[in-house]
Design goal:
Length: about 260
């Protein structure tokens, strides 16, 4: 039986993190590096991704690479994978962490907006994973983790573009898992309400809305980016070597409403 340190030893591992300059992605990058991994911080925010990579190298002593990437552009994804292999010689794991969606009324979208949401939230993850597969198959306990959302597995007419794309992502991950058997593991995290700075306001939330959501959460707080990073590390680790095709819900217990309300 392995010790806890052995189970979470990422020495020699190379992990690509898309959306790596965001709140969750940057915490994941730092945490994986602290466990010994060499991380590739890939994000549309070039300055942010390179700054985080530089900080990680200083903090951990491990090599890190910051790269600008638009996951809706397949050519850029190809360059990302090649740059990773050129620098580190392999790809051990992928965190498909890119995701975004703002408030959109059920009947307020159109073909272009729906397709754009799919390209960003689903297709980008597919292409990055597909292009990494030849390298992942060579690794022991290779793992790919996807950032899902609670809006992707519950009715969410307020986020019709985002929720539809995230729902598609979940079934795509299940398909990848059953097709890949023991070669590569694929799992999703169903992420609840996370304190990710200005992103919540950009998505359409006011502070009053956020406060009302928190009142109903079982744990009485929003998640922190590191809460999600820890779950990602678990699913990528040897501790989860017999877990694939799963959806790990990380949402503070969710929002509970009494079955016998008094008001």
């Amino acid at each position: 039986m392995k010790t806890i340190n052995e189970l979470f030893d990422f020495q020699g591992k190379v992990t690509i993190i898309s959306g790596g300059a965001g709140a969750i992605g940057s915490e994941a990058a730092r945490f994986f590096a602290s466990l010994g991994a060499n991380v590739v911080v890939a994000d549309l925010n070039e300055e942010g991704s390179k700054k985080i990579a530089e900080d990680i190298t200083k903090e951990s002593g491990n090599n890190a690479l910051g790269i600008k990437i638009d996951v809706t552009d397949e050519k850029q994804i190809e360059k990302l994978v090649q740059a990773t292999v050129d620098k580190f010689g392999k790809v051990s794991g992928v965190l498909n962490n890119v995701g975004w969606g703002a408030y959109t009324d059920l009947w307020g979208s159109n073909t272009e907006k729906m397709v754009d949401a799919y390209k960003l939230n689903t297709l980008g993850a597919y292409n990055l994973t597909r292009l990494c597969m030849p390298y992942l198959k060579k690794e022991d306990n290779a793992s790919v983790v996807f950032s899902g959302s609670m809006v992707g597995n519950t009715p969410s007419p307020e986020f019709i573009e985002y929720s539809t794309a995230k729902a598609g992502l979940l079934n795509m991950v299940r398909s990848m898992a059953v097709a890949s058997g023991p070669e590569v593991r694929f799992n999703s995290i169903i992420i609840g309400t996370v304190d990710n700075g200005e992103s919540s306001k950009e998505a359409g939330y006011t502070q009053e809305m956020i406060d009302n959501v928190v009142k109903g959460i079982v744990m009485k707080r929003r998640g922190l980016p590191e809460d999600i990073a820890y779950a990602m590390a678990f699913l990528m680790s040897d501790a989860a070597s017999w877990i694939t095709g799963a959806e790990l819900t990380v949402n503070g217990g969710g929002v509970y409403k009494s079955k016998m309300p008094t008001s």
